[in-house]
Fold this sequence. Notes:
A 5-stranded mixed beta sheet has the order 2-1-3-4-5. The protein has helices at about 5-25, 50, 60-70, 90-95, 140-155, and strands at about 30-35, 40-45, 80-85, 100-105, 130-135. It is α/β, with parallel strands linked by helices. It has 5 helices and 5 strands. The chain is globular, with a radius of gyration of 14 Å.
Amino acid sequence: MIAFSAADERWMQRALELARVAGKQNEVPVGAVLIRDDKLLGEGSNMPISQHDTTAHAEIQAIRRACSKVDNYRLPDSTFYLTLEPCPMCAGAIIHARVQRVVIAAVEPRAGAAGSVLNILNNERLNHRCEVEFGLLQAESARLLKDFFAVRRRL
Length: 155
């Protein structure tokens, strides 16, 4: 079992706060926080519905903000905290940004690209691989998603 640090928990809690914001805006409750040296580079929550933009996932929002902040399209030595396993699009962006470490709360058994369905983040055929760790605050993230979709099914 992976031993997560107090900083890991603090950053994942922030990602969960962002996921809750997305859920309150009727977006799938996913949050993402990108840090380096325990400093925030960028963060995001899901916004594809409100932005009318298929690419407006939490991870993409965070990467865009981080790259803008550091004036670089590469984010080496960074850690990404994600409340849900990334989709293939987001996993590809993470690889291109050269993120070092990805900490994921909940797995995505239908479209996950960090090992559940595909393994883009650790594909030996690609020129970059990430350290990937699952399970930090998994129950809380899974509960947010389950509750969100339960309400949507009742509507």
